[in-house]
Structures
1.
Amino acid sequence: MKSLVILISGRGSNMQALLQANLQAERITVVSNNANASGLEIARQHGIETIVLDHRAFPDRQSFDAALAEKIDACRPKLIALAGFMRILSDRFVQRYQGRLMNIHPSLLPAFPGLGTHARALQEGIKIHGCTVHFVTAQLDHGPIVIQAAIPVAADDTEETLAARVLEQEHRIYPQAVRWFMDDRIRLIGNQIEVLGSSVSGAALYSPGLAE
Ligand code: GRF
């Protein structure tokens, strides 16, 4: 069975993009570490099974991760997609799901790992910004890159306007990456991704959108 688990902590707009993408998944389960995540309500509206596992109920990261792994394994997922899941995962957890744990990050990795990517991008004065879907490895916001989308930074961009335009791209590339994976089209060779049947390697989307 091609089962998919999506992990969220908040808004859930990337999760929503995945739910609306008609993926070849026979079962989708959304797990949140935050009972108040607004994404949970969106999942329920889509008739998707939801699970809440509050990390605050556990004494440490290891025990939360172990409980999370138990919930995930019960779903027998082909892929686990992190979609705004705001918890650092232990090495052990990452190891357990190596090669089938994906994340979406709001920058063109390896630039700007971590939080506050848009503010940092503006501060650095970069001209091209974007987002990345990658496999998760022990190093935070690293790991083999599946797909990236780039957008130009406008002179009058604020953190909010930039975040909004990047988010639009996130909603394009995450479903694409997950679809490739669910359709067995991603081959991992070392740190490189090959997308079977695609003329572009890993694939990149560029969205020019600024007038002169
Ligand atoms: C997104 O920007 C994603 O790239 C990052 O966290 C944010 C989550 O937003 N990892 P949402 O919950 O998917 O709306």
2.
Amino acid sequence: MADTTEDGLKILVVDDERDIREGVERILKRMGYQVFTAGRGEEALAVLENQSVALAILDLKMPGMDGMELHQRIRAIDDQIIVIIITGYATIETAIEAMKQGAYDFIPKPFEPEHLRIVVRRAHEKLRLKQESERLQMERARTLMDLDTEKSRIRTIVEALPTAVVVTNTAGEVVLMNPAFMNSLDLDASTMVPGQNLCVYVPDPGFCEMVSNLSSGEACRIGDAPTYELTVSGSKYLMARGQSVINENNDCMGAVVTLSNITSLKMLDQLKSEFVAKVSHELRSPLSTIHEQLAMVLKETSGHDSDVDQHLIERAKEKTHGLISLIGDLLDLSRIEAGGISHNVQPIQVTDLLSSIVDFLGIRATAKGQSLTFEPADEALPLISADPMALESIFGNLIANAINYSPQGGKIVVKAGKADAGHISVQVADTGFGIAPKYHEQIFERFYRVKDDNTRYITGTGLGLPIVKGLVDAMNGAITLDSDVGKGTTFTVTLPV
Ligand code: ATP
Ligand code: MG
């Protein structure tokens, strides 16, 4: 395509009258154009062979090849060239005919230089607009092509990802499922039907619920990617992690879910638990023996004038006691993990159990100048089926925490009552230090302890609440807490009857 910048634009002027030819050339050169001239049609065609001309100004009446014929020959060579006809009044009709055949405009002779300038400028503008619109059209075509390539590229990348990925639409139907995903779930690619609901392939209710929540508009959320653990054929453990897909208008478009194989982690976890259980078990009896022997030494030497430093032995006895209770906690955890808390299940009246725990721990509360009271329900509570050791561990831990994390003179109240149909609830409320909301989840993690000025000097291992939660979960119950920093905390346990 010819260059349309003023300096670059090439114009061919063809006229047998030398004066006109040179006059036009002068005017156009002054306008900044590059001008070629020819006195005859053949000469003009020779110029066109070497130059890419954008505009041709032709005289209609020339000896030999006339302007009409030249116009046609030019169109045959390059129909993009804009042709302007110069004509005398006698040939105006022919000029009109030439325009019908595609000439752009005509200038009747004789003409003023300004007339020529106006017509050429207009032709130049038309050329510019045409090129601009062609450029835009090409750009659009390229953008569409880019989009298309991008789409197929993303698809190819997702297909090739070693990570299992599935994408659903808002209805939870599969839009894209990569081979790694099918492999993870042992799915056969040949049985896949496009557009099926993901639940058809992964019939796990928890997984389906997570995916449909993430996919549908209502529960659509971005940020925390919820996880779900699922088992395939009993021996393969997978961790699903999902996220809503949201467009620029914040509309939910569906969900993207990845799977990772956590079987080896699970095995390792199990090995670790077994190891901890074994070591704890092996440590317990020698430690208990040492503890008892220290107690005996203390008893035998108390009141006597002896060389034994009573204070040191007292400290050693306290430390062994701490270790024994840590080992007890670890063994409890192992038992919960191994699902061994349902060995000794029997019908239990929670009211009786609670009042005996409160009696037992009352001594510790009194020693700290605290009041520990039990408020039983007005009516007799239904019995629950549970392992009494598990219940003792749950409420013992909660009440011990209430005592530990309340200052001198605190008030601790244990309440039991009926919750909704089929459940009883037990509340342990204290007027202690309270727990800031940001710790409400972490305190149920193993070994997590809140460290602040209030708790710094209180000893513990951070295993109490994880044990409580493990036991409550295993009994299909629930535990919640409500706390006001500086005012107190209430833990509520609900258990099925
Ligand atoms: P242990 O394993 O001996 O029970 P611990 O009491 O530190 O150790 P958890 O019972 O799991 O461990 O409690 C975890 C943390 O939660 C505690 O360290 C404490 O910071 C906080 N906490 C628990 N109960 C209360 C409570 N009633 N009031 C204030 N903080 C509490
Ligand atoms: Mg505790």
